[in-house]
Amino acid sequence: METLMRAASRITLRLLFRPVIGSRLPIGFQRRWAAALTRIAGGPRGVERSEIWAGELAMKRLRRADAGVGPVDPSGREAVLYLHGGGFEIGGGEMYVGFASRIAAITGADVYLPDYRLAPEHTQPAPTDDAFAAYRAVLELGHDPGRTAVVGDSAGGGIAVSTVRTLREMGLPGPAAMVLISPWLDLSLSGASVGLVGRRDPMLRREWLERAARGHAAGLHLDDPRVSPLFADLRTLPPTLVQVGTDEILLDDSTRFAERAYAAGVEVELQRFDGLFHDFQVFARLLPTARGALDDIASFLRRRLAAGG
User: What is the C-alpha separation between 272 and 261, in angstroms, rounded?
Assistant: First the structure.
């Protein structure tokens, strides 16, 4: 049955996502289209949603309904800052609320989903600045950094690494753990998988990635660590779990990151999923392997956050 579901997921992406996202169509239409498609994947029941603000930055807070009746003290709860993907151009709370709700449901943590600024209207460092502000807001709500994690997928994975590095460089308390889902860490697209695997990826196209990278970098060299954290100093990162499919164009971003992080002394775990595509975890409603991957994320976070960093 999973074989059929994988095939159906691939067809959906190739026919409905890939031709539109990263095309010449107006970016506003692309964002609305992507948000509509992700509603198909849906989200779990029993997760409460509320909106909070970090200055002018809107964030959704997702909390399992069994947390209790009335206000809940954040200081006694685990927290996850979720940084969404979308090639720095699409995404946001409405697109990712279903998937982030799954993270809340399986971990029991309070999950915060910020609407960071997007290109082409805003370029680097705007999204990293927003992620930094969102993390600070989570701590100001009362969450303990030793029981807080940062999770990011695709472009959000790169933002996650840059944000955590910034925290450590500023001498601020960083999160106890990080999870990267199909992270985009090399905007120069120098990984061998870009050419070797690219045609098998049903979601991403090299042409879109190239345009999105130039738009986000705003004149910086694409191998500059400020836009491609794969090439940054990784020594200060917390224990990190990386998940990637073998049929995605950005496969080598994950494998090279794991190698570099391990060499830098970071406790890093790399999970490769054979025959699966970029951000396959979003299809948890359909794919048992995706549900298993999310269970692995939940187990990793429970271990790290329960230990208090």
Answer: 16
pLDDT the model gives residue 239: 98
Helix intervals (H) in the chain: 2-12, 27-41, 93-107, 126-140, 155-169, 193-196, 206-217, 251-263, 288-306
Sign of the torsion formed by the C-alpha atoms of 133, 226, 280 and 37: positive
CATH number at residue 108: 3.40.50.1820
- 292: Cβ–Cβ under 8 A, 6 or more apart, which residues? none
Angle at 235 between CA 229 and CA 238, to 5 degrees: 90
Mean pLDDT of 27-43: 86
- Summarised one tens digit per residue, pLDDT across range 282-297 is 999 989 999 999 999 9
pLDDT in tens, 192-214: 999 998 788 999 999 999 999 99
How deeply is 154 buried, as exposed, middle or buried, from its count of CB atoms within 10 A (0-12, 13-18, 19+)?
Answer: buried
- pLDDT band of residue 267 (cuts 50, 70, 90) is very high
CA dihedral sign, ordered 162, 167, 168, 169: positive
The count of domains in the chain is 1
Locus of tokens 């889902």 = 181
Rounded Cα gap, residues 158 and 165, in angstroms: 11
Q: Which residues of 43-69 are buried (b: 16+ CB within 10 A; e: fewer)?
A: bbeebebeeeebeebbbbbbbbeeeee
Range of 202's domain?
2-67+76-306
Specify the DSSP class assigned to residue 269.
E
Question: Residue written as tokens 């992620």?
Answer: 131
Residue-wise pLDDT tens digits, 220-238: 999 999 999 999 999 999 9
Partners of 151 in beta bridges = 82, 179
Asked whether residue 70 carries a pLDDT value surpassing 70, the answer given is no
Residues known to be catalytic:
154, 248, 278
Would you state the pLDDT for residue 71? 55
